[in-house]
Design brief:
single chain; 45% helix
């Protein structure tokens, strides 16, 4: 069945919002909130969870630069398959380097892809530390941790930016839902 036919059946276009940002910036939390709102309005969408992919499809990968790139390449391929099925994908992945984001972007037609930078200062992410990973990284127990012992290059040309410092989650979700709804037309 063609993508166009699937989109007609779904009642909306497929596409992807690829989230980038430091660990703890709020990428997954926002993605899950947006998914809930989109599902309530009848949008067929999926959140690609990096932790879940690393338990299965990407369980053979570590955190070296080459493994991180391969992790993202595989995730982009999965996202592209969902887009071809006429679904909307929310993909919260750290995606730390500009070169990695270019590889991800190459999987999609420009009209299908939006890059979202979830902006949050490192010290705020360290304070949040939702999974306790910054504590481990700062203690030297977690090597190659983005923002501490591995680099993060903030995007300079993201399609959309949400700054999560001092902004309530619901406002972040509302803002992104409005953006996505424009992409679904």
């Amino acid at each position: 069945m063609s993508r166009e036919r699937l989109e007609v059946m779904n009642g909306h276009k497929g596409g992807v919002v690829w989230f980038t940002g430091l660990p703890g910036s709020g990428k997954s939390t926002i993605a899950n909130g947006v998914q809930e709102r989109l599902l309530q309005s009848g949008v067929r969408c999926v959140v690609l969870d990096g932790d879940e992919l690393r338990k299965g499809l990407n369980r053979d990968l570590g955190f070296s630069e080459a493994d991180r790139l391969e992790n993202l390449r595989r995730a982009a391929q999965v996202a592209q398959l969902f887009v071809q099925a006429g679904m909307f994908v929310l993909a919260p992945f750290i995606t730390p380097m500009d070169s990695f984001r270019e590889v991800v972007r190459s999987f999609f037609k420009p009209k299908d892809y939006s890059e979202l930078y979830v902006k949050c200062a490192l010290d705020s992410c360290v304070r949040r530390d939702p999974k306790g990973m910054y504590s481990q990284a700062l203690a030297g127990k977690l090597p190659d941790f983005t923002g501490i012992s591995a680099p993060y290059e903030p995007p300079v040309d993201a399609d959309f930016v949400i700054d999560t410092e001092g902004v309530e989650l619901q406002q972040c979700v509302d803002t992104l839902v409005q953006f996505v709804q424009c992409r679904l037309q």
